[in-house]
Design goal:
Methylamine Dehydrogenase, Chain H; 4-stranded antiparallel sheet; 1 helix; 10% helix
């Protein structure tokens, strides 16, 4: 074959066209292959729900909604026989001298988790409750309506307390914070946390409202100023911190009537517990009331400050003791499982107790006689509270509800 410039040019052009065709086909094949790879990888991800949260994922608790439109869940309801509603703040305080019977008035339903604590406002018009659903709720007693759902905590809420003037509500949570709320509109005023604050198991206000105490799972009780949240003192329960981190499962916590002292009892799963009387202002050692095998579940002062009622971890009995030295006045027996909560009536003639046996019992303080056994809860009772005039008892339970019980007297219509 004779090679000339035209032949070479023809071959070069023909070869280039063939190369372009091959390159185009190779690119097309590569592109199709990449589409298949991406499609095959993406499909299982979508099928297994990785790209979006599962339907049963618990939503993150958000910021407190505007107080002008408080969130009220549609499932919230109350069943109250209006004919037996007992008004609060009656002229006379109800107690042993005028009580005829105790009747269930209604059930507050709305929490989606165990109701850990319940308390009345100082004016007797509201009830506050806390729950493992991460919320605090405010209810109106007169009609059982839900006023506010206070959101913001990111874990179980273990304790709630009204300030003595009724304007503030404190809540303590497993999220290691204390939150202070405005009762009138549900606004969050302050969130209190620190690097050394553990899970908050109990929170209470001092009698004058200037201080609050927060007890955590690490054996510490913090005393803080209510107005600013500034830490005043940290009380380390003796013999607690030294043992394996000193984890506390429950606290008994109560200010004396004049606010000068704070009685603290704890329960430690590892190694017992103790009961101490701490001075609030003076930086001095606490006074030991009871020794180190006393696992305290709950404690409360009588209204006159002379007596303490004390419940113990794992025990179906509770004590009535002298407040000064802890000497036992009498033992109350009747519950079949541990007593979780005890409370005096406003006139100190009655004691109410809530237990793991799902019952609330009402006792005569003077002789320990069991007066009433209140049945209605379907799981253990975590807390009981008297209204300020003694006309109501509120009980909170692991069955996600609060029951209001009315104390009927001979003078009521």
């Amino acid at each position: 074959m004779h090679w000339n410039r035209s032949t070479f040019k023809y071959i070069s052009i023909h070869h280039g066209q063939e190369m372009n065709k091959r390159f185009t086909r190779r690119n097309l094949v590569f592109f199709l292959l990449m589409i298949l790879i991406v499609t095959s990888c993406a499909m299982p991800v979508a099928q297994h729900g990785v790209l979006s949260p599962p339907a049963d994922t618990v939503p993150t608790i958000g910021v407190k909604p505007s107080p002008t439109v408080p969130p009220i869940p549609t499932e919230t309801k109350i069943v109250v026989p209006t004919a037996t509603l007992v008004p609060t703040n009656t002229p006379e305080v109800i107690g042993l001298g005028n009580i005829l019977e105790v009747v269930p008035l209604g059930t507050l339903v709305g929490h989606t988790g165990e109701v850990t604590d319940v308390t009345f406002s100082p004016n007797g018009e509201l009830v506050a409750s806390s729950s493992t659903d991460g919320t605090v709720r405010l209810w109106r007693i007169s009609d059982g309506s839900l006023l506010y759902v206070l959101e913001g905590h990111t874990n179980y809420v273990r304790s709630v307390a009204f300030s003595p003037d009724g304007n503030l509500l404190a809540s303590g949570s497993n999220d290691r914070t204390v939150r202070i709320w405005q009762v009138s509109d549900g606004t969050l005023i302050r969130t209190i946390s620190s690097s050394f604050m553990g899970r908050v198991l109990r929170v209470i206000f001092s009698p004058d409202g200037s201080l609050f105490a927060a007890a955590d799972h690490q054996c510490f009780v913090q005393l803080r100023q209510t107005r600013s949240g500034i830490l005043l003192r940290t009380l380390a329960q003796p013999k607690c911190v030294a043992r394996w981190g000193g984890t506390v499962s429950s606290w008994g916590l109560a200010f004396s009537s004049d606010g000068s002292q704070l009685t603290i009892g704890e329960s430690r799963p590892c190694c017992g517990g103790s009961l101490y009387l701490w001075p609030v202002e003076e930086i001095t050692a606490p006074q030991l009331i009871r020794g180190h095998n006393m696992r305290v579940r709950d404690l409360v002062y009588s209204a006159d400050g002379s007596m303490l009622a004390i419940a113990f971890e794992g025990s179906p009995v509770f004590w009535l003791t002298e407040a000064v030295d802890g000497s036992i006045i009498r033992t109350f027996e009747g519950h079949t499982y541990r007593v979780n909560s005890v409370v005096f009536s406003p006139d100190d003639t009655l004691l109410a107790s809530g237990s793991r046996d799902q019952k609330v019992r009402v006792w005569n303080v003077s002789d320990g006689e069991l007066l009433y056994t209140l049945e209605g809860h379907e799981d253990e009772v975590n807390n009981v509270a008297f209204s300020p005039d003694g006309s109501l008892i509120a009980s909170s339970s692991d069955d996600d509800t609060i029951i209001l019980w009315g104390l009927i007297t001979s003078t009521m219509p």
